[in-house]
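Input record, target 12 of the design panel.
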């Protein structure tokens, strides 16, 4: 039987406020356990929550960025459940009326553009953290502790429609959303610290069936790689279970990265299990139009607008424009490089940034802001390709030397010190072409018999004789002229 995968993601985005959503406690990461939780975070008798305006500002920014409706009036509710790391035995969240409603995220999967609609984004508080085996009892036994520093940290839970149909599509959506919240400055995006956590709702159904299958939720995935593996495993598990005559049970599962599998955590609760009711200590959140407009005035150029400008102004294809607008820093790097080049060289700049620069950054696990080759330095290197001083192939060797800091990263100094200047003397190149043709009559005969691969073989021989420094275009033109003459 052919199966269709159905995926929806719920993303918990920790907002970049200095204090918590309903109290003045710090949100700084890494403090000693239980040093950043006050009476409001603990819901001690007599304490009252007060809404953090900065958290609402960030929710509005997201809503504007995704084309959503900003609710003029939304309410907070108590979501009742017991966990050891939830000191109140409830979570303050939004249920019936979320602050952000609708919207969409567009992204590329390979060279195909996709759009996923959003259901909602609502404000809520985070819980504390259970710490297992981090404490030793009086007799040396291991025990668990609770760190409530995170309790009350502001979250914006962003819920997608179940419109994704593969693990690759889900990862591409998650990366696009991750990039957007960092672009807007509403979240630092640090997945290792839990600032961006993903819950994946996964189900399968026979191709052509309209009704959704029973879904399972994979909880708190904090890595794009793990998200892809978790979904792939869960899809296989569900299909095998159904094909063996069993049935999928709605539940919450955890992904074990060491075993590369999901395992059951608890039965999945429905909304009525949480006994939602409006929080009596918090008035409705009222957002006037002038508040929305004041936030709009502080918005940066959005990725979609930037992509459109890169396409219309520089002639880039949509996939390249999307790749270069993954982050504001990368887009700024590209624009700085392109500004230092002659008109019409945007494609060359884009190819180098998406190719050599990005590959080296990925290999060393660095961000573009940590690149030892500045935008001006890369532009200086590309100018030497444009003016024919070096070939594109030699430029890669020069770039590697620039990256490692040789000659203070100066491309001109490296080219001169290593003697890498391209041979562009037509007489010298012609002599090398003649020598190669004389030494390889069999390959010449193959070319004249119609074998095009023989031409590339001859080019390789000439470049080898020139130690890679001959101008490739001149080599091709002279060789073709002599072969056809």
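The sequence produced for target 12 reads:
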């Amino acid at each position: 039987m052919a199966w269709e995968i159905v995926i929806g993601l719920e993303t918990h985005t920790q907002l970049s406020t200095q204090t918590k959503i309903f109290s003045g406690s710090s949100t700084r990461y890494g403090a000693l356990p239980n040093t950043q939780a006050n009476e409001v975070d603990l819901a001690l008798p007599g304490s009252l929550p007060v809404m953090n305006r900065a958290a609402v500002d960030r929710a509005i920014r997201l809503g504007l960025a995704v084309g959503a409706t900003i609710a003029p009036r939304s309410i907070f509710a108590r979501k009742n459940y017991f966990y050891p790391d939830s000191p109140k035995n409830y979570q303050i969240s939004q249920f019936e009326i979320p602050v952000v409603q609708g919207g969409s995220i567009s992204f590329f999967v390979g060279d195909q553009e996709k759009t996923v609609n959003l259901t909602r984004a609502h404000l809520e508080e985070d819980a504390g953290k259970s710490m297992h085996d981090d404490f030793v009892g009086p007799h040396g036994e291991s025990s668990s502790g609770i760190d409530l520093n995170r309790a009350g940290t502001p979250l914006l839970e962003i819920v997608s429609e179940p419109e994704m149909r593969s693990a690759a599509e889900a990862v591409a959506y998650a990366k696009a959303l991750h990039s957007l919240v960092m672009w807007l400055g509403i979240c630092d995006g640090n997945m290792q610290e839990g600032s961006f956590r993903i819950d994946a709702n996964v189900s399968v159904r026979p191709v052509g069936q309209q009704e959704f299958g029973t879904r399972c939720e994979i909880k708190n995935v904090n890595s794009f790689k793990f998200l892809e593996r978790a979904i792939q495993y869960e899809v296989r598990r569900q299909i095998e279970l159904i094909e063996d005559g069993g049935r999928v049970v709605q539940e919450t599962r955890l992904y074990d990265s060491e075993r590369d599998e999901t395992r059951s955590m608890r039965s999945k609760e429905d909304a009525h299990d949480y006994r939602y009711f409006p929080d009596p200590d918090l008035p409705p959140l009222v957002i006037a139009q002038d508040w929305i407009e004041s936030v709009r005035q502080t918005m940066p150029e959005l990725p979609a607008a930037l992509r459109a400008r890169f396409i219309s102004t520089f002639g880039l294809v949509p996939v390249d424009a999307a790749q270069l607008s993954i982050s504001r820093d990368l887009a700024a790097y590209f624009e700085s490089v392109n500004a230092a080049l002659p008109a019409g060289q945007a494609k060359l700049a884009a190819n180098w940034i998406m190719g050599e620069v990005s590959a080296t950054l990925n290999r060393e696990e660095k961000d573009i802001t940590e690149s030892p080759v500045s935008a001006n330095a890369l532009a200086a290197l590309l100018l030497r390709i444009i003016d024919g001083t070096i070939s594109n192939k030699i430029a890669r060797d020069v770039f590697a030397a620039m990256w490692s800091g040789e000659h203070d990263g100066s491309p001109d100094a490296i080219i001169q010190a290593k003697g890498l200047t391209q041979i562009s003397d037509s007489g010298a190149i012609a002599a090398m072409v003649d020598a190669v043709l004389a030494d390889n009559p069999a390959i010449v005969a193959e070319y004249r018999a119609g074998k095009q691969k023989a031409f590339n073989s001859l080019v390789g021989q000439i470049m080898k004789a020139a130690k890679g420094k001959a101008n490739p275009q001149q080599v091709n033109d002279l060789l073709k002229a002599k072969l056809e003459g």
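The chain has a mean pLDDT of 92.
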